């Protein structure tokens, strides 16, 4: 089974990486860029008896390893 | 205007980061994970006179800075 996981910073959490990208874009002449927030995406291929089982296992993977749930949100999308 | 950019490794390009995540998941007892490929997502807020202009500018940002087009693909999604 194929899934895509999206990991993004929670609202209100500062994103120095995104800010650095924004400044770099500005320095390259791309004006009018008000905000850049950077996140992760993970394409995972795994065995699962059902879509529900896959979703549950992927959520557990996020909670235990793939996302820092103190500052990040995650979303699991089964493909 | 709000947009989300997805940057992923091209097919065939090795992903040591994804492999490291896969091994870590295995070590934590998540078996049956056959592949993990890691990418980036960027949420961008920018001024643009039209959706076409926004798309064109975002594609140019990807080609010039946000993606390494030798090994990465990118996709622009206007929200």
From TrEMBL, chains A, B:
<dbReference type="InterPro" id="IPR003850">
    <property type="entry name" value="PurS"/>
</dbReference>
<dbReference type="GO" id="GO:0006189">
    <property type="term" value="P:'de novo' IMP biosynthetic process"/>
</dbReference>
<comment type="pathway">
    <text>Purine metabolism; IMP biosynthesis via de novo pathway; 5-amino-1-(5-phospho-D-ribosyl)imidazole from N(2)-formyl-N(1)-(5-phospho-D-ribosyl)glycinamide: step 1/2.</text>
</comment>
<keyword id="KW-0436">Ligase</keyword>
<dbReference type="InterPro" id="IPR036604">
    <property type="entry name" value="PurS-like_sf"/>
</dbReference>
<keyword id="KW-0547">Nucleotide-binding</keyword>
<dbReference type="Pfam" id="PF02700">
    <property type="entry name" value="PurS"/>
</dbReference>
<comment type="similarity">
    <text>Belongs to the PurS family.</text>
</comment>
<protein>
    <recommendedName>
        <fullName>Phosphoribosylformylglycinamidine synthase subunit PurS</fullName>
        <ecNumber>6.3.5.3</ecNumber>
    </recommendedName>
</protein>
<keyword id="KW-0963">Cytoplasm</keyword>
<dbReference type="GO" id="GO:0005737">
    <property type="term" value="C:cytoplasm"/>
</dbReference>
<comment type="subunit">
    <text>Part of the FGAM synthase complex composed of 1 PurL, 1 PurQ and 2 PurS subunits.</text>
</comment>
<keyword id="KW-0658">Purine biosynthesis</keyword>
<dbReference type="GO" id="GO:0005524">
    <property type="term" value="F:ATP binding"/>
</dbReference>
<comment type="function">
    <text>Part of the phosphoribosylformylglycinamidine synthase complex involved in the purines biosynthetic pathway. Catalyzes the ATP-dependent conversion of formylglycinamide ribonucleotide (FGAR) and glutamine to yield formylglycinamidine ribonucleotide (FGAM) and glutamate. The FGAM synthase complex is composed of three subunits. PurQ produces an ammonia molecule by converting glutamine to glutamate. PurL transfers the ammonia molecule to FGAR to form FGAM in an ATP-dependent manner.</text>
</comment>
<dbReference type="GO" id="GO:0004642">
    <property type="term" value="F:phosphoribosylformylglycinamidine synthase activity"/>
</dbReference>
<keyword id="KW-0067">ATP-binding</keyword>
């Amino acid at each position: 089974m194929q899934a895509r996981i999206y990991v993004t910073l929670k609202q209100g959490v500062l994103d120095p990486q995104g800010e650095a990208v924004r400044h770099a874009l500005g320095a390259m002449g791309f004006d009018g860029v008000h905000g850049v927030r950077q996140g992760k995406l993970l394409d995972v291929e795994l065995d699962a008896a059902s879509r529900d089982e896959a979703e549950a296992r992927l959520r557990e993977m996020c909670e235990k390893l793939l996302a820092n749930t103190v500052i990040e949100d995650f979303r699991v999308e089964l493909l």
